[in-house]
Specification:
about 30% strand; alpha+beta; 1 helix; about 90 residues; two-stranded antiparallel ribbon
C-alpha cells in the first residue's frame, strides 16, 4: 500500500510499506528450512504449511503483520504442548 503526502506545491513524498520476501521459511523454534515460502515439504500424498499470524490494521500506516514461522513438527509438538501447558488451550482440528 502506498500513500502520497503533498508538501508545498512542488515536493511529494511517497510512503511505501515493505514486506520481507524470502525464498524459503526457517522455523523460529528448530531452524529447519522449508522448501519455499509457503510449504515445509511436499510429497505425492500431502503438503504441509503452517501459519501463526496476526494482521493488525492501523489507520494511517496500513496493515501490520506479526508472525512466527513454525515447521509442522514443532507446531504439533512444541507449540501445541506449550499452548496446552501454559494456557490450557487445545488444538483445533478440522
Amino acid at each position: 500500500m502506498s500513500k502520497t503526502y503533498k508538501i508545498q506545491e512542488e515536493e511529494t513524498i511517497v510512503h511505501v510499506s515493505k514486506r520481507q520476501v524470502l525464498d524459503s521459511r526457517i522455523c523460529d523454534i528448530c531452524g529447519e528450512r522449508a522448501i519455499d515460502d509457503v510449504y515445509w515439504d511436499i510429497d505425492v500424498y500431502q503438503s504441509n504449511s503452517t501459519t501463526v499470524e496476526l494482521v493488525n490494521s492501523v489507520d494511517d500506516a496500513g496493515p501490520l503483520t506479526y508472525w512466527f514461522d513454525i515447521c509442522p513438527e514443532c507446531f504439533l509438538g512444541k507449540f501445541t504442548d506449550m499452548m496446552r501447558k501454559e494456557f490450557g488451550a487445545e488444538v483445533n482440528i478440522e
